[in-house]
């Protein structure tokens, strides 16, 4: 379980805030202690370092989206994530890259971002909408868009490319469409009314639904009011099961190209059969010669010339011309295989999909923890080939990839 400190960038200590009593000695603290011990630090220095780590992990937290519990009329944050074309999920932009307007509330008391979110490009922006736990909001205008020609062209481009946006409430994702065009594609309309329906079970949010209404035609030099409403309802869904609906195959309507899959499958079978036939015809004569050699005595076998596949058997264990790079690739491959296997097992045991970026954060931590695998397999292979720069084996590939990432 991740500590509260890893879930926040900043938190403001205010009266009435409670200390998290569930903080405990987690695995990072144990690893930190073990590292200090093997580095030769004294016992008192180790104790002081552990106390400091525990104090840092104890952060004052409200009952909010960090622990997914709320009190009545407590602030519920609506985060705006990204917007992009529906048919290209990899093309995403900031929500406010389109000329949307935000609500009147400009600041909030907390913000969080994990390492996995940062690497995945998740850039949450505050919507400015005032939402409080179990407090319904009737339809009200929160801002107005002054639609000039440039803003209209931006919205028209987004509607033509079927742009949709993603939002989050208590880590639950919500999707909405920007607008739609008429049957002829001449007039374009913007959805201006966000109708939120939030389900709660006790003091936890278990379901969020968005209905887009208020279709308004895009006309230059006009003012378009943006409105929202919030309705709360009791739900029997347990908090542990609130992500089950996102796992339903019918929730996301993916278009599966069955013909392309069948075509690729048949192509693979054809190529495998073709390569097998070529190898069998090539090796048939070699197999016949090898069977005749079994009938020869040792003298004739030693005087005979090597032919066929036996001509390359001496190159199998020949030292490579670049042992450092070769050993580094072998060690990194073993490490990546270990990371993939461990992450798959952890994903089967833990519900990593319930937290944004948790899968990537887990992979990074496991990659750092499995570095001895890289050192063992890569270093041992490098030592067998007579190398004397064993430490360089573990850092050749990561250093090159890091430089490539920065470039």
UniProtKB/TrEMBL annotation:
Establish whether keyword Transmembrane helix is in the entry.
Answer: yes
User: What keywords would UniProt list here?
Assistant: Membrane, Signal, Transmembrane, Transmembrane helix
Residue ranges spanning the membrane: these are 258-280, 324-347, 359-379
Superkingdom: Eukaryota
Membrane topology designation? Multi-pass membrane protein
- GO biological process assignments: protein localization to membrane
| Statement: the UniProt record of this protein carries the keyword Transmembrane helix | yes
Cellular component per GO?
A: membrane
Q: Where does the record say this protein resides?
A: Membrane
| Cited InterPro entries | EMP70
So what family is this one in? Belongs to the nonaspanin (TM9SF) (TC 9.A.2) family.
List the protein's name: Transmembrane 9 superfamily member
């Amino acid at each position: 379980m991740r500590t509260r400190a890893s879930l926040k960038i900043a938190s403001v200590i205010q009266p009435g805030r409670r200390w998290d009593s569930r903080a405990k000695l987690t695995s990072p603290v144990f690893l930190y202690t073990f590292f200090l011990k093997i580095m030769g630090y004294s016992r008192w220095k180790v104790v002081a370092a552990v106390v400091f780590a525990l104090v840092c992990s104890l952060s004052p937290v409200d009952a909010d989206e960090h622990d997914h519990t709320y009190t009545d009329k407590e602030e519920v944050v609506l985060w705006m994530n990204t917007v992009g074309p529906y048919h290209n999920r990899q093309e995403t932009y900031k929500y406010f890259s389109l000329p949307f307007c935000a609500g009147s509330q400009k600041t909030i008391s907390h913000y969080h971002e994990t390492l996995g979110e940062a690497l995945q490009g998740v850039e949450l922006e505050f919507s400015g909408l005032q939402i409080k736990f179990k407090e319904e909001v009737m339809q009200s205008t929160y801002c107005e868009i002054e639609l000039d020609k440039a803003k209209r062209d931006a919205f028209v481009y987004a509607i033509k490319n079927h742009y949709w946006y993603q939002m989050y409430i208590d880590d639950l994702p919500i999707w909405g469409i920007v607008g739609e065009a008429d049957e002829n594609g001449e007039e374009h309309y913007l959805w201006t009314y966000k109708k939120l329906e939030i389900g709660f079970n006790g003091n936890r949010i278990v379901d969020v639904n968005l209905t887009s209404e208020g279709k308004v035609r895009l006309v230059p030099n006009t003012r378009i009011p943006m409105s929202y409403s919030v309705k709360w309802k009791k739900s029997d869904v347990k908090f542990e099961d609130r992500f089950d609906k996102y796992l339903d195959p019918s929730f996301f309507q993916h278009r599966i190209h069955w013909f392309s899959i069948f075509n690729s499958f048949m192509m693979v079978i054809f190529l495998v059969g073709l390569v097998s036939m070529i190898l069998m015809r090539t090796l048939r004569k070699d197999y016949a010669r090898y069977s005749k050699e079994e009938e020869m005595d040792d003298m004739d076998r030693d005087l005979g010339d090597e032919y066929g596949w036996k001509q390359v058997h001496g190159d199998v264990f020949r030292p490579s011309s670049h042992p450092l790079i070769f050993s580094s690739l072998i060690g990194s491959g073993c490490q990546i295989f270990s990371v993939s296997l461990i992450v798959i097992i952890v994903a089967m045991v833990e519900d990593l999909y319930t937290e944004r970026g948790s899968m990537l954060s887990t992979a990074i931590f496991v990659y750092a923890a499995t570095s001895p695998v890289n050192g063992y397999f890569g270093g041992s292979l490098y030592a067998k080939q007579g190398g004397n720069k064993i430490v360089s084996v573990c850092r050749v590939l990561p250093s090159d990839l890091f430089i490539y990432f920065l470039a």
